[in-house]
UniProtKB/TrEMBL annotation:
InterPro entries: SCO1/SenC, Thioredoxin-like_sf, Thioredoxin_domain
Keywords, alphabetical: Copper, Disulfide bond, Membrane, Metal-binding, Transmembrane, Transmembrane helix
Disulphides: 87-91
Keyword Ligase: no
Residues passing through the membrane, by range: 12-30
Name under which the protein is recorded: SCO family protein
UniProt: Cu cation binding residues: 87, 91, 176
Organism of origin: Mucilaginibacter psychrotolerans
Family: Belongs to the SCO1/2 family.
Keyword Transmembrane helix carried by entry: yes
Residue ranges of every copy of the Thioredoxin domain listed in the record: 31-213
């Protein structure tokens, strides 16, 4: 009888311990795969019912020295990051992870990628095109952008909010962000991800699918 009672106690203990673990696992799975992604306004998460206005349009110059505006991403899920071609620190890692995102959706015309240079004085269209060729970037889906520095910095600070560092876009101003920003087809920001972290980039890849399922 004692052995039976002990076995029952052990079984009960295992069940009691397993319930919170299974509950937490189920919650995390729901959070990462089913629950709608949050909306962001000025870099902060807000409730869906209070979702912000759509992002304002933009117009920059791409690697082909041609104007590219927000029409490129209209009704698309899009991913945007900042970089500069001579960056020796975080940019190579971020751009390598952008390439992974592109590879995951290379046959999906509903997903677009943008990489905006924060060093427009040096990152001319010709330099961007050379960089794209070096990195194997496919231009139909992924565009490299440059433009007037004040316009670029205003967009980064006041449209996609990928940095909290203040500045005026003047000659001595410089920003450097590790963030990759996810934006839905209605031009709402839906996520910020550390572009240097493999786990966050994989979550971004998964979250793109979740956004596509909303439409």
């Amino acid at each position: 009888m004692g052995n039976v009672r002990n076995k029952r106690n052990v079984s009960f203990f295992i069940i009691v311990m397993a319930i919170p673990i299974l509950s937490f696992t189920a919650f995390k799975w729901y959070e990462q795969h089913v629950q709608p992604l949050p909306y962001f306004d000025k870099g902060l998460s807000i409730e869906q019912q209070g979702k912000p206005l759509a992002l304002s349009g933009f117009k920059f110059i791409n690697q082909d020295n041609a104007p590219l505006d927000s029409g490129f991403v209209t009704a698309k899920v899009w991913v945007i990051n900042t970089f500069f071609t001579s960056c020796p620190t975080i940019c190579p890692k971020i751009m390598a992870n952008m390439l992974l995102i592109r590879q995951a959706y290379r046959q999906d015309n509903g997903v677009k990628l943008l990489s905006l240079s924060i060093d427009p004085a040096h990152d001319t269209p010709a330099r961007l095109k050379q960089y794209a060729a070096l990195k194997g970037i496919k231009m139909a889906q992924w565009q490299l952008l440059t433009g007037n520095k004040k316009d670029v910095y205003h967009f980064v600070r006041n449209t996609i909010y990928s940095t909290a560092v203040a500045g005026d876009g003047g000659e001595g101003d410089f920003i450097h962000s590790d963030k990759i920003v996810l934006i839905d087809g209605r031009k709402h920001i839906r996520g910020y991800y550390d572009g240097t972290e493999a786990g966050e980039v994989q979550q971004l890849i998964n979250d793109i699918k979740r956004l596509e399922s909303e439409h």
